[in-house]
Amino acid sequence: MSVRRRGTAAAALALAAALALTACGGSSDGNGTSAEASTGAGGKKAVAQGGDEFADAAKKTAAMGTDAKPGQWPRTLTHAMGKTEIKARPKRVVVLDVGELDNVVSLGIKPVGLAPTEGSPELPSYLKKDAGTPKNVGTINNLNLEAIAELKPDLILGSQLRAADKYDELSKIAPTVFSLRPGFTWKENYLLNAAALDRTAEAKRKLAAYQAEAKALGEKLGADKPTVSMVRFMPDGVIRLYAGASFIGTILKDAGIPRPKNQQVNDLATEISAENIDQADGDYIFTGVYGNPKATDKSKAQGNPLWKNLAAVKAGHAYDVPDETWYLGLGVTAAHEVLADLEERLTR
Predict the structure, then answer these.
(1) E strands within the chain?
(2) Fold equal for 8-57+214-346 and 68-210
(3) Residues 333, 102: contact at Cβ < 8 Å?
(4) What are phi and psi of 39, to 5 degrees?
(5) Residue 118 burial (CB count, 10 A)
(6) In this structure, what are the phi and psi dihedrals at residue 324, rounded to the nearest 5 degrees?
């Protein structure tokens, strides 16, 4: 059973504060949530974010951006924390999450600073060729403000969910533009970041190319598409079944690929344990791992006879996938990588 938070704006701020504490023992994934969840029926849990909040977040995110014309500076952006003026085209950009990294790199920008996730502290391999050598400025949940200031940025890109409590300090360093949250609003976040860089037209072209690729994959799979189950092994025994309001959920929806019934919900994910891994079944199962696999219950779950009896496992249709693109990528480059992986696996 899904849990609905009361008061969307207050919830976003509260979550940002909670996420700031995850470095002290919690875990946070690339879709912008901690491991917080509520117990539901049948031993299943729903990640504590719900459909009403997601719908409101999408509406708010779509209203962000700028009315500035191409090449117009200064320009003022409306974003999750208010309005920010950017006086000239940014040349030194700091990104506070992997989604922003993917966004700016796809637009030809090599950021000077990056805050990676705790689960993947290195520069993502799929972006290394084009990302340059950004300096580490802490992690998404533990920013190093001094390191950011030393880079003398002229633009900082992040999200309210990750760093609302640091916004005022960051704004004193450089113009700071925040999306509401990472995850299922990744396309709108991309356009917001592009507006700050005066690269909106390029971002729209890249999104159109992604949409065309997703549509083509759906058409290639035909009318009788297989169901796809998304399973991610998290630290401390948490196992997530990713649902519609997630990065991967949007990609599967865009390609018209159906999900098992227990993943057809407007939430980020539901949570199960290794003991009821049979709830993860689908025609195909794609598994990711956040951080060190030894810190998760992946071995325990996949050693369970229930796992071995799943239809997808018996058919040889259970695959490990790169966590850095399927779950942590949160941008158009990662989305293309995911579509390529889906086509390879689903059209064999």
Answers:
(1) 37-39, 45-47, 75-79, 82-86, 93-95, 113-114, 135-136, 138-139, 142-143, 155-159, 176-179, 228-233, 239-242, 269-272, 284-289, 318-320
(2) yes
(3) yes
(4) -70, 135
(5) 18
(6) -70, -20
Q: Tell me which of 3.40.120.10, 2.30.30.110, 3.30.1490.20, 3.40.50.1980 is the CATH number of domain 8-57+214-346.
A: 3.40.50.1980
What is the C-alpha to C-alpha distance for residues 47 and 19, in angstroms, rounded to an integer? 14
What does CATH list as the number for 68-210? 3.40.50.1980
Q: Domain residue spans in the chain?
A: 8-57+214-346, 68-210
Question: Which residues, 6 or more positions from 74, have their beta carbon under 8 angstroms from its beta carbon?
Answer: 85, 86, 87, 88
* Residue 254 bridge partners (DSSP): none
The structure tokens listed for 204 are 């729209």
Residues near 82 by Cβ (< 8 Å), separated by ≥ 6? none
Question: pLDDT tens across 291-314, in order?
Answer: 999 999 999 999 999 999 999 999
What is the widest separation between alpha-carbon atoms in the chain? Answer: 62
Our CA angle for 126, 113, 83, nearest 5°, is 110
Give residue-wise pLDDT tens across range 221-256. Answer: 999 999 999 999 999 999 999 999 999 999 999 999
- pTM assigned to the model: 0.88
Rounded to 5 degrees, φ, ψ at 275 are -75, -20
Interior angle at CA 288, CA 231 and CA 23, nearest 5? 105
Beta carbons of 53 and 8 less than 8 angstroms apart: yes
